[in-house]
Automatic annotation (TrEMBL), chain A:
One of its GO terms (cellular component) is nuclear pore outer ring. Keywords: Cell cycle, Cell division, Lysosome, Mitosis, Nucleus, Protein transport, Repeat, Transport, WD repeat. This is Nucleoporin SEH1. The gene is HaOG212956. It comes from Helicoverpa armigera (Cotton bollworm). InterPro entries: Sec13/Seh1_fam (IPR037363), WD40/YVTN_repeat-like_dom_sf (IPR015943), WD40_PAC1 (IPR020472), WD40_repeat_dom_sf (IPR036322), WD40_rpt (IPR001680).
Automatic annotation (TrEMBL), chain B:
One of its GO terms (molecular function) is structural constituent of nuclear pore. One of its GO terms (cellular component) is nuclear pore outer ring. It is found in: Nucleus, Nuclear pore complex. Its main location: nucleus. This is Nuclear pore complex protein Nup85. Keywords: Membrane, mRNA transport, Nuclear pore complex, Nucleus, Protein transport, Translocation, Transport. Component of the nuclear pore complex (NPC). One of its GO terms (biological process) is positive regulation of DNA-templated transcription. Pfam families: Nucleopor_Nup85. Functions as a component of the nuclear pore complex (NPC). Belongs to the nucleoporin Nup85 family.
Length: 378, 567
């Protein structure tokens, strides 16, 4: 009888991005067919899937006058639009022009035009994200001086016009943010989570105006939009996260009554945020606690600072990466426990495999490290 | 009924021990890395740093690494398996609906056999492909697929006997023997050759005695007797004595008119006689005949002595049950499995573990084991589903809460999501997700609206499938994205094509029977308001009026209905 589990493998493919400096972010478009990269070389590049598993560079341009931290795609309903943010204190909106439906093979590089430059920040803009599309065309930025800005394009056909709708000071340096993707506006008001990379000192304790809760030393804040007051209010501070936060991501909601938030800090955390039904009519400040928050998982396997957390499309797998140069995949089992299902890392010993010289390579099967116990991806 | 508690749950933080580690090629990254998910099972790893670098770093920092899972089920030759099992899965869901009001076990058995025949056809196709394949690596791949599906069919068959089939009197032996003979045919060809040649002195054949013993162990007593007659000493007293013992063995039949109690008494009497014949040492001159007699009296050492002639303990399981406890009911096989497995210290294979767990009645362990098979969950999903519907699965967590339906649902959801990643199997995947509302539909929504839309035809198919499952939001989203794409390409006509879909709703809204529900109507209204600028005001007003009227009548009709349902 042969080995029944031998074919549970992964394949990998190397792409030479040809950025002249460190890459800071890679973002897929809504369909996963296009990929945008940004780097300290101040360039943004767009790559298109060739349909056979390969990627082709279709655009590359100098987007900022400083390191480009993040790149993000708008919903395709608004066209082919990306936003970038940079150390040069700006965020920018870019739109691809020309026939995007034609397959790229017969065409050369595509043209991306800067539609708008958002210059309100006085410090480095650390993150930028488009809002869930059912809220319209919204964009949120955050900056090192701790100000969250929410912009709106009132006319989705005119990407040159963005109005600054809200400016929310947090008084701590904000490194990352995530929109709650829940589609139900009735059950869940628009919600943002932001993470701070402020060092963990008691002096840094956030005391924000309008915040009724006592000083909280947490590094993750929840903001919600109230239709009645037309304001964004901080409705919670997750006291369970005390160390600087590098990345934060809401899982797709899937119609659940609670939200799952992944946090990259000194470890990988998954936090369950469950809105508590409010007592009648008192509003946000009526009850002291808006959410029941519970750390459902805290994984220390990276043994180092965790840099990124990222959910798959359906929120069943979480990928995390850290200073240990490893990527780990976490999966929720049917009884709601989380479990590591795969680890990707460099060879432990200095290998002498020659670097590949072709710009694009095909997928090759990855070697697995000898490990007596086998655990499939699924 | 199988009840087991979930004991293998890892403690938080311990999970890494079981995870497989993969080596990134080319020593890509020396320091911090980042990661980003693409669609489905694809993600990208990239080197990353938070600090502003003053000097351009070395070139190894500009590589991206795309990683994807290698999915066995997406092999073209397995397409038929995926499609046909989907049909059977859907029939099973219908049968399960019927089973809520009347017993439907016969239908379940039929569908279980259908699944197995699908697997067998798949194995045949693979065997044919393997024989034609000339590339060594490819051939090896196909052979490993054959191993996988062969094991799956073997386990499924045993599962069917133990949990799905309707066995008269619950006496499992004839079924168990059938399973052994089918999956572990041994000496069958030699026996057939010898019988066909029908020559005295067949003991000259080097495998003669192994074949005779093999037939006894497989419970083919008639064949064994016929072979013994071909021995040159077949007419001797010793041979006649063994033949007589084999012939007189009582065989239980539920329609035989005797109770199991009576059968047990007569069988024990028969075995006592055999034992006394053996102890009289009349067979001392014929050690092979003595071995046969020791086997039929259920002598452990006799079975032990022949164990090394077989590749696995499954081969002798049927014989062991036959000559130690032929009255065994189907859930009394754990002891027999332990006895047979213990006869030889050999490394345990994965199949061993699965068969052992199955015979011990630990279905939870079985499902845990079959999830390790690299068939991307095909087997675990379908087997769990059918066992669940047969009411044979009862899995408890630590708090003794029944989590069976959650296990089943999580497997179906996972399998459905996996198929939705395939460019032509996605609608099959959708049907699995749709069978697990509400979460399945929420997942389907996320995946469907992100399906790459290469052509108008593909867009139409997605919209049709979305509508079929009531995912109106997806249909609208796809329409809007197509519109946006045409607009940006400067093809206003194309975009208006999509706008006319709105006007197309007009006749439907005005039809006698309400076509759209009130929710649908709201959605169309929303659509209209978002796109009203592209319709001229007269048409828009007309549509608004029709929508309002439709909303009024559907709201009234549904108001009555939902109140009734709520009771």
């Amino acid at each position: 009888m042969g080995e029944l589990t031998a074919t549970n493998l992964f394949e990998s493919q190397t792409i030479f991005a040809d950025h002249k400096d460190l890459i800071h972010d890679v973002a897929y478009d809504f369909y996963g067919e296009r990929m945008a990269t940004c780097s300290s070389d101040q360039y943004v590049k767009v790559w298109d899937s060739d349909g056979q598993g390969g990627w082709r560079l279709t655009a590359s341009w100098k987007a900022h006058h400083g390191s480009v931290w993040k790149v993000t795609w708008a919903h395709p309903e608004f066209g082919q639009v990306i936003a970038t943010c940079s150390f040069d204190r700006t965020a920018a909106i870019w739109e691809e022009v020309g026939d995007t439906a034609a397959s790229g093979s017969e065409k050369g590089l595509r043209t991306w035009l800067k539609r708008s430059n958002l210059v309100d920040s006085r410090t480095s803009v650390t993150d930028v994200k488009f809002g869930p599309k059912h809220l319209g065309l919204l964009l949120v930025t955050c900056s090192a001086d701790g100000i969250i800005r929410i912009y709106e394009a009132p006319d989705v056909m005119n990407l040159a016009q963005w109005t600054l709708q809200h400016e929310i000071p947090t008084k701590v340096s904000i490194s990352c943010l995530s929109w709650n993707p829940s589609l139900s506006r009735v059950v869940h008001p628009p919600m943002l989570a932001v993470g701070s990379d402020e060092p963990n000192t008691t002096n840094a304790a956030a005391s924000v105006q309008g915040d009724k809760t006592t000083a909280c030393n947490g590094k993750v804040f929840i903001y919600e939009y109230s239709e009645s007051s037309r304001r964004w209010t901080r409705t919670d501070c997750l006291s369970s996260v005390q160390e600087p936060v590098n990345d934060i991501a809401f899982a797709p909601n899937l119609g659940r009554s609670f939200h799952l938030l992944a946090v990259a800090t000194k470890d990988v955390r998954i936090i369950k945020i469950e809105p508590i039904a409010e007592s009648a009519g008192t509003g946000n400040n009526g009850s002291a606690v808006r959410f029941k928050c519970e750390v459902v998982a805290a994984f220390e396997e990276h043994y180092s600072c965790v840099w990124r957390v990222c959910w798959n499309l359906t929120g069943t797998l979480l990928a995390s990466s850290g200073d240990d140069c490893a990527v780990r995949l976490w999966k929720m089992q049917y009884l709601n426990q989380w479990k590591c299902v795969a680890v990707f890392k460099n060879e432990p010993l200095p290998g002498d495999s020659p670097p590949l010289c072709r710009p694009h390579t095909t997928y090759i099967r990855m070697a697995a490290m000898a490990n007596p116990s086998h655990m499939p991806f699924h | 009924m199988n009840t087991s508690s979930f004991s293998s749950a890892p403690l938080p933080g311990k999970g890494v021990d079981t995870a497989k580690t993969f080596i990134l090629p080319d020593k890509c990254f020396q320091k911090r890395v980042g990661c980003a998910w693409g669609r489905g099972n694809k993600f990208t790893i990239y080197p990353r740093s938070q600090t502003v670098s003053k000097t351009p770093s070395n070139t190894s920092q500009d590589k991206l690494l795309n990683i994807r899972q290698d999915i066995l089920l997406f092999t073209p030759i397995l397409r038929k398996l995926v499609n046909e099992s989907n049909g059977t899965f859907l029939s099973l869901q219908k049968a399960a609906e019927t089973a809520k009001v009347s017993d439907n076990q016969v239908e379940f058995l039929k569908l279980s056999r259908q699944f197995r025949s699908i697997i067998r056809v798949c194995i045949e196709n693979l065997q044919e492909a393997a024989s034609k394949e000339e590339n060594g690596i490819e051939k090896n791949n196909i052979l490993s697929h054959i191993t996988i599906f062969y094991s799956i069919e073997c386990i499924w068959h045993l599962c069917e006997i133990l949990y799905i089939d309707n066995i008269p009197g619950d006496i499992v032996l004839p079924y168990l023997l059938e399973w052994v003979r089918f999956h572990f045919p041994c000496h069958e060809q030699t026996a057939a050759q010898l019988l066909e040649a029908c020559e005295r002195g067949s003991e000259e054949h080097k495998d003669y005695w192994d074949t005779v013993v093999g037939m006894v162990v497989q419970g083919r007593v008639d064949v064994a007797r016929a072979l013994l007659k071909l021995h040159s000493a077949g007419e001797s007293n010793e041979f006649k004595l063994v033949d007589n013992s084999l012939r007189s063995m009582p065989v239980y039949s539920v329609y035989g008119g005797i109770s199991t109690g009576e059968f047990t008494i007569s069988w024990k009497h028969w075995q006592a006689e055999c034992r006394s014949k053996l102890s009289s040492r009349v067979l001392a001159s014929q050690p092979k005949l003595e071995l046969i007699m020791r086997i039929i009296i259920g002598d452990y050492t006799a079975f032990e002595s022949i164990r090394n002639k077989y590749s696995s303990w499954f081969d002798i399981l049927g014989g062991w049950v036959m000559f130690t406890a032929p009255w065994s009911r189907r859930h009394e096989l754990g002891g027999a499995a332990a006895a047979c497995a213990g006869m030889q210290a050999s490394p345990r294979s994965h199949l061993d573990d699965m068969v052992r767990a199955l015979l011990e009645g630990d279905l939870h362990q079985v499902i845990h084991e079959i999830q390790q098979i690299s068939d991307n969950g095909w087997f675990a999903t379908h087997l769990t589903d059918i066992l669940f519907h047969c009411g044979k699965l009862n899995i408890m967590d630590k708090q003794q809460t029944n989590v069976t339906s959650r296990l089943r649902e999580s497997l179906i959801l996972e399998y459905g999501c996996l198929l939705m990643e395939h460019k032509s199997l996605w609608s099959v995947g959708l049907s699995y997700l749709a069978s697990c509302p509400p979460e399945g539909l929420r997942r389907a929504e996320l995946i469907l609206e992100r399906m790459p839309v290469e052509t108008e035809a593909k867009a139409m198919r997605i919209i049709a499938e979305a509508k079929k499952h009531g995912l109106i939001g997806v249909a609208q989203s796809v329409c809007r994205c197509m519109s946006a794409r045409h607009l940006s390409a400067g093809r206003l006509g194309g975009a208006l094509f999509w706008e006319t879909l709105l006007l197309d709703t007009l006749p439907l809204l005005e039809s006698d029977e309400a076509v759209f529900t009130s929710n649908d109507t709201y959605e169309i209204m929303l659509c209209l308001e978002l796109r009203s600028s592209s319709l001229d005001s007269e048409k828009a007003d007309l549509l608004r009026l029709a929508l309002a009227r439709n909303l009024a009548r559907t709201a009234l009709a549904e108001g009555d209905g939902t109140e009734e349902q709520a009771q």
